[in-house]
Amino acid sequence: MRLPPLNAVRAFEAVCRHGSILKAAEELNVVRGAVRQQIATLENHFGRKLFTREGRRLVPTGEASAFAEASGAAFDILQRAASEFKSAGTGRLRLGVPSAFAVWWLMPRVADMQASLGDFLVDIVPMTVVEPLQKHPELDAVIMGGEYRPAAGITSLRFMEDEFGPVATPALAAMLSKDPVAMAAQTMLVSRSAPKLWDEWFAESATPPVVFSRRQEFEDLLLALGAARSGLGIALAPRASIEDDLARGQLVAPYGFISRPSGYSLCCRTPDAKRPAFAALSGWLLRCGKGS
User: Fold this and answer.
1) CATH fold of the domain at 163-259
2) Are 61 and 52 in contact (CB under 8 A)?
3) Cys-Cys link to 8, which of 42, 76, 130, 132 (CB 3.0-4.6 A)?
């Protein structure tokens, strides 16, 4: 089958992402008429309409949506291949990592990681807002936490399980009973980077939701845990993030920890998954993740 024109596919994929010819034209740095012409070219190629209109938004048909997803993955792979070709021989990986995870889990192990990877160098890029790899063509891989379903063209390796629970200083925990309802008199510490974490714990632990006397939000989990260490209130924390605090007795988990159905995953583009550098990184993460 004759492939459709590449420029037409690129314009079509941009319109699908934005739901707007204007925004697609701005991204591609062309006029709207050029985008319309490319869409018409693609519709002529396939012999069918690609969009329906819902108000002011263009919505791809079911078949067109599937083609747009595959096209986006293909462009991503092509862009990565060009980047790899341009920088061949550098042996360097750019790894996007949630900021909190980087500080409390990865960085204490980074020397061991680099030793395991040998000549391959890893640039750790902290991510305050964690987003899927397809949104970051400048990265080679990302670590994702929680429930994550990889998109087309992305390979995901779950390397570590997760446990989480409420944590507080020993002094504050001493004021709590074995019943979580006692937390109502305390301050709930919330991370804006994971705003639903408390709701998830109540649901997954089968604990009736508690209305705290006060709620205080922080930009990310690192700050929320810092506030918990100071005795400001109770934070919800992944166990791996506070192992040292638990060992030193700086924080305690008055209601223990529960396992989560999710965990932490390394996500890379499928063509990269079997390359030596990714194989080495995957093996190291699996080894360390099982020991955590």
Assistant:
1) D-Maltodextrin-Binding Protein; domain 2 (3.40.190)
2) yes
3) 42
